[in-house]
Amino acid sequence: MNKVLLADDHKIVRKGLKEIIEKNSEFKVTGEASSGQEALNLCYENEYDIILLDISMPGRDGLDVLAELRKTFKDIRVLILSMYPEEQFAVRAFKAGASGYLNKDSAPDELIDALIKISQGGKYISLAIAEKLAFDMDRFSEKAPHESLSDREFQVLCLIASGKTVKEIGEDLSLSVKTISTYRANILEKMNMKTNAELTLYAVKCNLVK
Q1: Tell me, what CATH number does 155's domain have?
Q2: What is the pLDDT along the chain (210 residues), one digit of tens a residue?
Q3: What's 11's domain CATH number?
Q4: Labelling 138: which of 78, 164, 166, 174 has CA 20 to 30 A away?
Q5: Please, are residues 11 and 34 in contact by the beta-carbon 8 Å criterion?
């Protein structure tokens, strides 16, 4: 039986996931975390085979947690489960060491398929992600401007492009307005842009936002 840790800041989401997962006798939810840091703390205290990890959580986000997990707990398989479209974070998640990436809109059966695949040591990659990875391999060697951003900067870029204010982004990520403003300034500098409108237009053209 595979021991599963659920890391999502919404209790109702964790409850639904637990019900779906435990319909399959191969998996048992033995831990729940409402933040990235809590997930890490639980990993230091207990043993888990698989972690279902949300990207957007208070404090340390999923990709930051994933990076530390890969350094310290190399045998734990991590399935990223996110509300963000695959084209936004899937490639970054796989490069950071995720075993799979699943959108929260996916069907329950797909979640079980993903868990079975990664529990056997495989990678769960949807057709959309596979096409994205293939496209990235065929591109010119020069990186697109947004690829120079850190994971947190990229997350802030996507939120800006979705129309959220600095204050709203700060509330979503549990960070201060000053910190978000610093991220925004870094993003503009790295991408050689001056306004949110330029960032939004770029994000739309690159399919980073719907």
Answers
A1: 1.10.10.10
A2: 999 999 999 999 999 999 999 999 999 999 999 998 999 999 999 999 999 999 888 777 888 889 888 888 888 999 998 887 776 778 788 888 899 998 888 889 999 999 999 999 999 987 767 776 666 655 544 577 888 898 899 999 999 998 999 999 998 888 899 999 999 999 999 998 999 999 999 888 887 876
A3: 3.40.50.2300
A4: 78
A5: yes
Q: 150: which residues sit within 8 A by CB, 6+ positions away?
A: none
Residue type, 107: A
Look up residue 206 and give its DSSP letter.
T
Domain containing 192: what range?
A: 145-205
Give ∠ CA 82-73-5 in degrees, rounded to 5: 45
Q: Say yes or no: 166 and 87 in one domain.
A: no
Task: Starting at the earlier edge strand, list the strands of the sheet with 2-7.
Answer: 27-33, 2-7, 50-53, 77-82, 100-103
In this structure, the number of other CB atoms found within 10 A of the CB of residue 139 comes to: 10
Per the confidence metrics, is the pTM higher than 0.85? no
Element (H, E) at 64: helix 62-72
Is residue 210 in a domain? no
DSSP E strands, the chain: 2-7, 27-33, 50-53, 77-82, 100-103
Q: How many domains, in total, are found in the chain?
A: 2
- Rounded Cα–Cα distance for residues 145 and 122 (Å): 31
Q: Which residues contact 43 (CB under 8 A, 6 or more apart)?
A: 5, 51, 69, 72, 73, 76
